[in-house]
Design goal:
10 helices; mainly alpha; about 0% strand
């Protein structure tokens, strides 16, 4: 649970902090206070992200999560074995339509959640503000896991190379494994679904994430195993960040501590 008061001073300066001296500039002591407060916020954010990363990377090794590890490894192994067989049956028609559908869905989800955050900040709505902040933290933490996995896996996309989806072929962060669109959208959908437990909100959020995932797969941008791993990781990261920092006075899901981890 984060401290609302720590951020408010920087985001919304007090009247005393905004009063100008006769020359029209902020007094030196007040300027220094604002600078030190800004630096403090940045440092707190970095430390908090590093703690989250440590917890996320250690999560699969906790005995309570071994059953989820086994389930994900089992499904991933099966999909890896059948990736090429599945790929042959999806065809190549309308792939541009699928790509456009994916782009529209992820843009719509991102814009909606961005709007919720702005509404929370401008209207002083604590729940909406927390949703936006946790979404941002979730995206940062998702990227910090996604990027190393992309570099290490270096998997070819369908249609690249010999068409077998070989791993360790080109090391950059625009490879096939894991599915980035699935990972980021399911992470976002999980946070908002935990923040707002209404069924229609959860349905819309997970539907948007599913549309992005399926359409990217149908556009032959990823193998089936890429999308499964990306979706599972996104759900796990989103749930972890939510429960690590949520305010139980704002969300019923925070009180139950229901986790979907890996």
């Amino acid at each position: 649970m984060h401290d609302e008061n720590e951020n408010d001073t920087w985001l919304f300066p007090t009247k005393a902090a905004t009063e100008l001296d006769p020359a029209g500039s902020l007094p030196q002591t007040q300027t220094q206070t604002q600078q030190s407060g800004h630096e403090g916020l940045v440092m707190r954010s970095v430390k908090r992200t590093l703690r989250d990363q440590k917890e996320l990377y250690l999560t699969p090794f906790k005995p309570a999560n071994f059953k989820w590890d086994a389930l994900e490894l089992g499904v991933t192994s099966a999909l890896l074995a059948y990736d090429r067989h599945i790929e042959k049956h999806i065809g190549t028609a309308h792939y541009t339509l699928y790509q456009a559908t994916s782009d529209v869905a992820i843009a719509g989800l991102g814009a909606t959640l961005g709007g919720v955050w702005i509404w929370g900040l401008k209207g002083n709505h604590p729940h909406a503000k927390e949703t936006g902040l946790l979404e941002l933290e979730t995206l940062v933490n998702t990227f910090l896991i996604y990027a190393p996995m992309q570099l290490l896996a270096a998997r070819q996309r369908p249609g690249e190379g010999n068409g077998n989806g070989d791993f360790w072929m080109h090391h950059n962060i625009n490879t096939s494994f894991p599915g980035g669109h699935a990972m980021f959208t399911f992470a976002m959908a999980t946070v908002v679904s935990h923040e707002y437990s209404q069924k229609w909100v959860q349905l819309l959020a997970y539907s948007a994430a599913s549309i992005v995932t399926v359409s990217r797969f149908m556009a032959r941008d990823h193998w089936s195993s890429d999308m499964f791993v990306g979706s599972a990781l996104g759900i796990g990261i989103g749930a972890h960040i939510f429960h690590a920092h949520c305010d139980p006075t704002l969300s019923d899901s925070c009180k139950r501590h229901t986790r979907w981890i890996f």
